[in-house]
């Protein structure tokens, strides 16, 4: 197999890894050079800085997933349509340099109200399925824009986006709720997070439930230290509320940053929903699987 | 009856009126001196500037409703407990100057998740009931924090707050959705607002539905001009969604600024829900009714 340089290029961070044949990272680097920090025309130089040394290996191949394929990224990679499997994605790569540097397409699906889109989470989903040796799963990818992905027979059938992380950050920093919260997030307060989850479930409406973070603080039933964990629980709970989770169904697959997996894990456990947790290695596994697809074709 | 100076002192604006015996405004003034713009200790001077001339009339009485009674206001006026009617409120005034300047208490009620509070809307509710000569109603007061108030036999039984206006403003200005919207709001687009209401109703989850404002724009199904009206409809729709509105019930009472009454009116009409619309005169009528209560007591 050709030396594989795996790149997960998001909005805020650029993560790169040199992978072995099994898709495990031999070496990893993380740079604060997400696409929002890169000037138009500056992507090649940032890529060179991040992993130019690794690309000198004979036959090296770089596969990039994430927002680098968006209109504001390195090169726009058109979305592939759902349902889509590994081979669909491998067939629709956008080549920045022929046979050397490619961007994985994001996916688009139809939803009840509007189309939905993602970039990067399709690769994490494929990687998660590889890691767990499963073909069917509901994969949850918490983040600024959380994704709930339904995979069947190894293909992404459909998915839905929840702006959970962005709402949390807006409310935490810029709303009236910020006034009764400590400036600093401090340690996660599991009890306050679970209380927030319960409030979201009981209320059934975020516009109303969010105000409870203020009134509970006003009457002294929520401390400034616990407020941020409560608010986080409210938002995660609102995301989970509409998912109609059933403890009798197979375990969810949860993959993302350790901090977010921890939070969602507390909320899911509180609701009695089983899950298997994976870390950020899913992206590397997914890119390795796409590389194997490419190799099998040639 | 004593000359009555009515004051609606909110977060952003200070509105004052000189009322006649029937509670109608003879003269009105609006100043951009909401409580957030007033330094601690500066309230008396701002009050003097706004209506000091009117207060020189012999026997003049000033009644103040709104955020001026909050911890950050002129003087903290403890909340009255629900259910509460006009006489309960009149009995619990906080006097800034004995028998001359008083602040109307806000109300507190218990909710399924947390207590709820309001300041000012109780007075508007009492005023709306007076204007319509009704004792029972559901009164909707749209705003930064919209209130849904249930009145029975002339008393406020319970109410619920929705952070609709604040969420709109956060998403409109500070979220990723802002990127695909025109800088300027422009004219309200009724069709786009109705489409947003439908999206909220269909989706049932704001964290998910909000993302449609982005994806519809990405695929060219929502113009930058219509985006703000669509987002407004999404948020109003999310507020209405959980209210279990029934076209068979008596008409809602809608009271607030003309711009917001217009928006909520479009949404309610679209859903086939009857309503009666009132303007900002409700606050004056409510303060006049509290003044009559005071007079009857003496």
From TrEMBL, chains A, B:
It comes from the Bacteria. One of its GO terms (molecular function) is 2-dehydro-3-deoxygalactonokinase activity. GO terms for biological process: D-galactonate catabolic process. Pfam families: DGOK. The keyword Secreted does not apply. Keywords: Kinase, Transferase. This is 2-dehydro-3-deoxygalactonokinase.
């Amino acid at each position: 197999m050709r030396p594989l340089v795996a790149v997960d290029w998001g909005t805020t961070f650029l993560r790169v890894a040199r992978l072995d044949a099994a898709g495990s990272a031999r070496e990893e680097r993380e740079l604060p050079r997400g696409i929002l920090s890169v000037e138009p025309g500056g992507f090649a130089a940032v890529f060179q800085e991040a992993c130019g040394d690794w690309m000198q290996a004979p036959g090296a191949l770089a596969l990039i997933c994430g927002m680098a394929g968006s209109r504001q990224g390195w090169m726009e990679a058109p979305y592939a349509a759902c349902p889509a499997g590994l081979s669909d994605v491998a067939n629709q790569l956008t080549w920045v340099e022929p046979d050397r540097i490619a961007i994985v397409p994001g996916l688009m699906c139809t939803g009840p109200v509007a189309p939905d889109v993602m970039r990067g989470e399709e690769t994490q989903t494929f990687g998660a399925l590889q890691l767990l040796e499963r073909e069917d799963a509901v994969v949850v990818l918490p983040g600024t824009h959380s994704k709930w992905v339904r995979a069947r027979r190894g293909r992404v059938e459909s998915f839905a986006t929840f702006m959970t992380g962005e709402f949390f950050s807006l409310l935490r920093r810029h709303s009236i709720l910020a006034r009764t919260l400590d400036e600093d997030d401090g340690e996660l307060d599991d009890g306050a997070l679970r209380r927030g989850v319960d409030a979201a479930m009981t209320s059934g409406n975020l516009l109303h439930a969010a105000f409870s973070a203020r009134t509970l603080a006003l009457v002294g039933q929520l401390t400034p230290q616990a407020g941020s964990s409560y608010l986080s629980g409210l938002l995660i709970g609102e995301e989970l509320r509409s998912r109609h989770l059933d403890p009798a169904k197979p375990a969810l697959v949860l993959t993302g940053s350790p901090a977010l997996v921890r939070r969602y894990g507390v909320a899911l456990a509180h609701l009695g929903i089983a899950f298997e947790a994976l870390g950020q290695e899913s992206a590397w596994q997914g890119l390795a699987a796409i590389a194997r697809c490419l190799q099998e074709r040639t």
